[in-house]
Amino acid sequence: MANSLLEREAILTAVARHGASARDGRGRWLLLRGGPGMGLTSCVEGALRQERATGGIRVRHARSVPQEAEYPFGVLRQLFPEEDAALPFTDGPPAGSRQPLFHRLTTRLAGGPPVLLAVEDLQHTDEASWRWLGYLTRRLGRLPVLLLLTSAPSFDTGELFRATGQETTLPPLSDPAVEQLAAVHGHGRTTARLCAEASAGNPRLLHALLADLPAQGVPRTLDELVDTRYRDAVAQLLDSDPAPARRATALALALCAAAEEASPSGTPPLMHPDGEAVPLPPDGEVPLLPPDGGTPLLPAGIAGADPAFLAGVTGLTRERQRGVLRAMPRLARLLSHPLPREAVLASARDGELAPLRLRAARQLYEGGAPAPAVAAHLVGLPEITEEWMTRILEEAAELELGQGRPERAVPLLRSASTGPLTEGRRTALACRLASLELFSSAVASTRRLHRELQLTNGPQRLWVASALCGALVAQGCIGPAMRVLKEATDPYEDSRLTRTTRVVAAAIGVHDPEELPRSLIALRTRPEDSPASAAAPEHSPDAPSESAEALADSLVALYEAGSGEVSAHESTARVLDLLADPLHPRLRTSLFSVSACLLQWADHPADARDLARRALPHPPALPDLTDFGQQQLILARGKASLSTGRFQQVIDENEPILRACADQGIQLPHVVAALAIAHGELDQGDTAQRLLSESAAWEFNGSWSWDELLYVRGRLHSFDGRWEQALDDYLACGARKRKRGFESPIAQPWRSGAAQALTALGRPVEAVRFADEELRHARAWGTPRVIGRALHLRAVAIGGRLGLETLDEAVALLRSAPAPVELTEALLDLGRARIAAGHGRKGREALREAHRLAQRPSAELPRGPLAERTGAHRPDSGEGETDTTEPDGGKPDGGDADGRVGTAGDPSGRVGTAGDPSLPRLFRAAGHALALAGARGVGRAPVTDAASPLTDAEQRIVDLAVRGLTNHQIGESLHLARRTVETHLTHAYRKLGISRRTQLAARLRSGEPGGPWSGEV
């Protein structure tokens, strides 16, 4: 094909020149060198067509093949078929007696017309024919013969007489030529660049790749090609070289380059002596080894070729390896691209790569290379046979996890799990691997743990069962999780181990309201000392009874706090005592999670976040969802941030978790709830609703995490003025909590939400009943946040002078709590109430304070009692000091370095940025309320009489309109004419600064001048 001869014009010109000379009786020879796929055959065919078209010359063509290299005179038999009878089929006479035959053939050529003799693949020519071709070149000067030859680049052509001919090497196609061919196939420059790199200018590879390219997009792997022609062409290229050493070298180079790409954090597996890679010019032909044998040259994609290292991989001697590298100049450029590297490795035969991988890994390990560089070779082995291999794979996996790349860590751990392991180490590895697989396939993770549970005996069985339960809880399967732990308890006679198992089961039992009473009985019942338990070591790692009792006590404290039996002060004291003792590492996160929840409820968010920081992996590593303690710590950490107005921090910490769990069957309602309310508070309602919609397909169960989602859904409905829907969700949340016996408002203050919704729906009597009940439970807990919040919503429900006084009390209490959202909301209602009561100046002062607080809620989180008690030492002791910086030099929890505050780990407690409000929803509401109140220095609302409150009639009609009633239905309900309803709505629209009915709910939410404060005070 014509395209195959692109940039081969110089070859055809040389053939034409030598052909003209042969026609004049002055013969010449021309040797074309080139590797497989470089177009030697196409050049010969083009030359033959050209000379036939010119005329005046006969053409004879022969091709050597390796299968006939031992057949004497095989090539001559093709060139001179008429001499077939005269050419012997045996090894032939000795070299000296061949001269008459050679002379006769040459004389025949001299006496005939001009002839073009073409012989391809000299490296496969039989010895007798090769001797005759050399004989011919020494006599060509007086013969009408053009001898056109081709050979491999490394073939020794010393037999040819240099004075009568020349040789040339076919260069690879240039990038402009590749771009031209790609354009003919309809591809642009980006694809053309891929073609240039993935073919290295080799015409055969180029045409195969062009035939395999998809119509759209640039492929990055072989699987993205439409066919296997390119893969097959690379395999043919590799198979065409009969030398095993060259094939092994090509595979080793591809293997090491692929391993380097797979371990970017490690030292390149092929290193220059000076540590630097020398890039190969895109179109040049730079040898792997320079003529002086100095520093090798390879493209940056391969990083360098140390012959000593390669020799260790291939099993060749160093000198032999250097010779092989010199003989393979163009392979370097080809293997600098991942597509041909993948094709080279795909062409490997069974069992061909494993020895190369093993030798490469061993060399790197013994040379002190980083674990990722060694593991990149080990992970491809069919079997891990030595202990050091397992250790390196685990070390590399942990490094990948630390960089937030679990998808790279999983295959490393899978490979490590096939190695020689003790039972305890195998179990630990299986649990670790299952925790990572949970993010890619919850089914695979669960099956792995089920299998390990069947293989494990003794105390380790408890920890496998615990991990399996965590995985099942993460998938919403509470019942199966409880059954697993019950079955795991049965085989043990050791009372301490049985007690530990029951405590762990009770920790999961809080998810199931049916199981909770039995769990509480188990937690509150101390086991009698048995002979078996007395014989156990006091701090046996396999029978962590002391830590189990601490966990049991903390779970009892958690339930008693939720049921309203104890105060915040009592709960905090119990937590501090429990955390003062050494903790068994297996139960550490569970105890930390319960303690963090209690501390967050007790208005100690800094302590709660500190416990979460110690127990959860440092970002970007993901938490272990097979550990239900870490599951609950995620909630405690998020609630601590939400309570202090750090909404962007919640998003930064939880979005990666939710993203990793997408479409894997994992249900994390508490994570969705935290993200949804954070987006809602940031005035990103569409995002919040999208998150809730995506979780709508999940099946509700008895887990406490669904309580949180219901409460948040109610809050978001209230933000948009959908009071009926908000009330339904608040009541549903309350019903679930009451079934569990959790009456306290410390976790989800659903009664306050219901009171707010009932007030907005015009049902104040019911609202006051809920508010009073909330206040009673809040006073029992005793923290300023819950009492202040309950007082605030009670004040809204009762209205009037008593409501105003109650609001003053609520604001005073909330000022002493780390509760910027609750304080801002209370200040907004206080300002409106004062204005409605005729105290405009004081009302505007409260609104301005709310406006300022929403822009910058707090300066610093108060130091908690846990930090005060432990000082510089962590509560679990033995872990060193609690520093204010992380190992990477950053702040705890990964604070940003760009000046943003309020993101993960800002120890100062600041929130927001210099330009943006930290509480956007409340900032907007406060600004609008100030505008309605006629305050200076804020934007005015687009109304003509905004300062005028709604009349009672207007308020009643607006309330019904917000509930979705039509004008006709409102008229029937209030016994008014439809015209009267429309008139009142028109006046209300003007006062509220809106033009459509759909804007009513949002405007009333952001700052209505009417409501409970529009009547007499």
What does this structure look like?
Helices cover 57% and strands 3% of the residues. With 1017 residues, the protein is mainly α. Among the domains are: 2-94 and 102-169, P-loop containing nucleotide triphosphate hydrolases (Rossmann fold); 175-238, no CATH class; 241-274 and 282-420, no CATH class; 938-1013, Arc Repressor Mutant, subunit A. Strands 2-3-4-1-5 form a five-stranded parallel sheet. Helix 36 (750-760) runs parallel beside helix 38. It is elongated and about 130 Å long. The termini are far apart. The model is unreliable at 265-301, 529-543, 872-915, 939-947 and 1007-1017 (pLDDT under 50).
Average residue pLDDT: 81
Distance between the termini: 97 Å
User: What composes the largest sheet?
Assistant: 5 strands, parallel
Strand content: under 5%
Rg, nearest Å: 41 Å
Work out the helix count: 47
Name the structural class: mainly alpha
Query: Could you list the spans in which at least 5 consecutive residues all have pLDDT below 50?
Result: 265-301, 529-543, 872-915, 939-947, 1007-1017
- The count of strands amounts to 5
**Helical fraction:** 55-70%
Strand order of the largest sheet: 2-3-4-1-5
What characteristic shape results from the CA principal axes? elongated
